[in-house]
Amino acid sequence: MTFSLIPLLPELTLLAALSLILLMVALYPSQDGTAAYRLTQLALWVALLALWLTQDIEEPQLIMNGMLLRSTSTLLMQSAALLALSLALLYGRASLIRQKLWQPETFMLFLCSTLGVLAVIGAYHFVPLFVGLELMALPLYAMVALRKDDALSIEAGLKYFFLGALASGFMLYGISLVYGATGSLGLLAIAHLAEGFGSSNTLLLLGLIFIVAGLAFKLSAVPFHMWAPDVYRGAPTLVTLFISTVPKLAVVVLLLRLMSGPLSSLLTEWQTMLALLAVLSMIVGAVVAIAQPNLKRMLAYSTIGHMGYLLLGALVGNTDGSSAAMFYILTYALSNLVAFGVLLSMNETSDGDSKNADGKITLSRGSDLEDFRGLYQRSPIRAVLMTLAMLSLAGVPPLLGFYGKFAVIAVALINGFVWLSIIAILTSVIAAFYYLRVVRLMLFSSRSEGEGEGEILPAIGVIPRTVLTLNGLALLALGLFPSVLLDTTAQALAWTFGLL
Amino acid sequence: MNVPVLSLLIWLPIIAGVAVLAVRNVDGGRPSRWLANAAAWAAFFIAVYVLCRFQSTSAAMQFSERVMWIPYFGIEYSLGIDGLSVLFIGMNALITLLVIAAQKAGSKGSYLSALLITSGLTYGAFSARDAVLFYIFFEAMLIPMYLVIGVFGGAQRKYATTKFFLYTLFGSLFMLLALFYLYGVSQTFSLQAWHHLPLSLYMQLILFGAFFMAFAVKTPMWPLHAWAPDAYAEAPTGAAIMLASTKIGAYGFLRLLLPIVPDAAQVLAPWMIGLSLLAVIYFGFVALAQTDLKRLIAYSSIAHMGLVTLGFFLFDAVALKGAVLLMVSNGLVVAALFFCADSLEKRLGSYRLTDCGGIVKAMPWLATLLVFFAMANIGLPGTSGFVGEFLVILGAVGYQLGVGLLAATVVVVGAAYTLWMVRRVVFGPVTHSSVSAITDLGMRERLLLSVLAAVMLGFGLWPQPLLGMADASITQLLAHMALSKL
Question: For tag attachment on chain B, is the N or C end more exposed, with fewer CB atoms within 10 Å?
């Protein structure tokens, strides 16, 4: 078998950039993040280019002795991950500078985690899969706690670390049980072996339960969601954006892959568990979000709810279901980028500046719903973009988010999951209430006299503003021509299902 | 000649609306107002062209356009109008034109823009032949309306607009589930194909429930009406008229509910008749108790919509024609009354009935026109209201005498609250100090209301053109509903 490194070019590009930044830090310890930022953006786009140049394949291929998969769906999701990070860094650049996180190390962590994401999306063997998951998760723990003098940030980092370690343990235990049942770690081999077992194999079933628990934690599906609100609130907003978007892409691919291939003989068990997770996530995500006074916490519950809808598509367990789920995560990621892009452009007071007189650590502010009151009068463009994002997340036509909900609920209903569809409909009305509340605060309310006087919103640079606006308009444009995205995902999956 | 007339009709106001939004701050808003007026006139002339070229002898879809839009789900961008939609296209054009033309200097560009976009989406909903396309137009209207009421509405606007949004979303999402089910059965979203889709009675009843949720909220029908009085009362006049006059909810009954689940409609007809009669009587009395002019008009409109839904479920050609005419007539009357209320509010600063009184001396023009519109609201022979009400009540008497008698209360109670309103507003002693100081209608208002009055009078005296256009399609709809789909 020939052994070529060319298909690995995207991953290698990120690795090279990572090493280079490390070297730069070692040689010039006192530099700020400018060079690292530019290098990161460059690496992301080179990786994206490499991805498209080296992998013009229609047939799925297993490379590296069957360790990694290259297919149209991995191509799509890896591109989405790279693009999402690039956009996120662009939107969050000014915010990083304001929060004094403009250091090369920050970008190293982002690159490292994204490398893990690429590995998970491509993995077709439990070893690279688990290594990728850890590579993705470990930098996240540090990223959440980046603001070393912020009480919430530290608390969130610690909480995320302990719960994340527990989830990794679950996952690993599940993998070992599957290995025990089948004697193999390669997904292809497991698929062949597990077919003969049916659902009678207790060992395999137990392994599945642990794996689903681990995945549910990463997706922040209820009842494994406890970490999400605190982590979302405590982490620097750019990190929150990253956590809520990029790793989710990888975990969704992983879920769909395990479900459609290696462990597809246990479809009924998958469906039972995912249905439970989906229902609980949709309900908790919709109801609890109403009580949140902080936008980041609200968006955490919004993510939980969205993962519920995603699982609704995934649990159908056929090509239509998988492509609906994949389409859903893409629509969610695009809308989320706009919402967080606006949030990143707001004043987020860093604690370094606002320590109390007695030197105690204070809590970071600037993301409360109240900060958005009357935003339209202060900054129409922010308010309009946020409105687009909120309406898209709420799933109101003709915005992109509507088609995501459309796809998953249609597929679920047609395949006979009637009650789940009805719950999805009811919870999306409840969820619309809290998305609308943000719109109401921004557009219909105004600040009372004297409140927040003299507060100046930070200016947004020309490039971030243009890109963010385009991103916001894309929610509308893709809403008018949803086929662009829908067909891409559907075709990506049509060629690769079973070998997702 | 293959000009996509309907697409033009839909997208011209929407694109103009976006352009108005873009230039709203240029030169004190004059260009934006000019542009909005031009767009409204252009759409009006296109609509007139459509009305003139419409072949009223045929029940087939005309001005058809079909392009595959979302191939993955087989969703088509498919437009076309028949006798049921053409009347509402015309009415929407007239109402939009009047609402836009009524805006004086100083009105906000964003307001005009939202009205234009709503108008374009309304054309879309009336001409969509694909269920998803219909749904998207139907739902997308929520956004501009929500924003307009929230930004430009009255004191309770935040409460009213949230209630409006959530009610409508709640109702229509159930319709979405119904659309998914029908797609699962038929593998298409074409309404035409669904009209001939066989369905078991059990499934039809469930689908009926889902469609009913959507359209009963939008119509509005008792008991899903609670958003309407608040939204109508809090909305700025133009938006209130666009909400109350376009009749998109009742149109949904005709286009989707009745032809897709006719057997369920037959089975549930007594219940629907009951609900409609309840609405007619209950809202009539509620209107009697109102002290706010806008709320009174709102309840009056909802009461008349009860008569319209009654006409739908009698399964009788006469009643159905009457219901369609009543939709058009009520749209015009409600628009006219809201305009009058707006003129009063501009001068007196309030919609409270107790703040008016004796305006006949100060405002003879308004008094005259208001009395005329009141007569049209009651359904006095010679006005457009008469023909519709008469035909529905006639159909109801044919169905059962008791139903006919109860339906006729709309005339009695309607006369009571309308005349009492007129007495309190127009006549009586001058109780409010500012009434004596006000001026009569300006040229623009006079012209506007006179146009509406002329249209009402015209259709009242000679309803044949309206009836003729809808005739073939109504006959076909009834024939279709008589065929069982079991």
Answer: N
